Each structure stands twice: as C-alpha cells, then as structure tokens.
Amino acid sequence: QVQLVESGGGVVQPGGSLRLSCTAWGFRFDDYSMGWYRQVPGKGREFVAAISWSGDNTMYDITVKGRFTISRDNSKNTVYLQMGDLKPEDTGVYYCNKGVDGGASGYTRSDFWGQGTQVTVSS
Predict the structure, then answer these.
(1) How many CA atoms lie within 13 A of 48 on its CB side?
(2) Residue pair 1/12 in contact by the 8 Å Cβ criterion
C-alpha cells in the first residue's frame, strides 16, 4: 500500500526558508519520479516541482524556479523541497505525489498523494 508522509511545513516570514520532506512506503521508491504540488483554498493543486527516479532530471514551475530546489535520497525513501526567498504567494498546503514512471521524459502525476503540510508565509 502506497503511503506518502510530508513534514516540515510552518510559518515563515517573507524572504525566509523552509525544507519540506516526504517519506514514502509501499513501493520501490527508486523506480519512480516524485513531485510536489501546492493548493490554496478555492483552487486545484498546482505543480511546483518534480524529480526523476535518479535525481538527474528536475522540473520546476516558473514561479519557483531559482528559489526552490527538489532533491531525493533513495536510501531514505525521501524526497525534499528546499524553499528559499519565500513570498506570501507561496502560502498553501504542499502535497507530495508519486509519479507514474521513472520520469526520464517528464513528470506525470499519479493518484497517490500525501496528507499535505501547511506552509504560511506572512510577516
């Protein structure tokens, strides 16, 4: 049974940093790409970043490129999202997602999601 558990959210001032973690169980982690999405009230989940099974390929939404870094540690079944220079518009619930394949040619999300972790950027 696939399980994804996010952690690391919190309240931070504009310009600050946070690192989110997502630990996975129930599948062979190093066979699959992984992604991060975020959601604000009244909107659907929006793509933030993704990483291929090996970590060699990464993808970012234009709104976070240069400020966020996605990485993974396959020995720990964990994917990370390092967020820097945070802005109020980065506020939302951040969700981890399992990709449908290794991600060598792009990211396709599956129906497997974590429970989400809240990030609030406010002064």
Answers:
(1) 28
(2) no
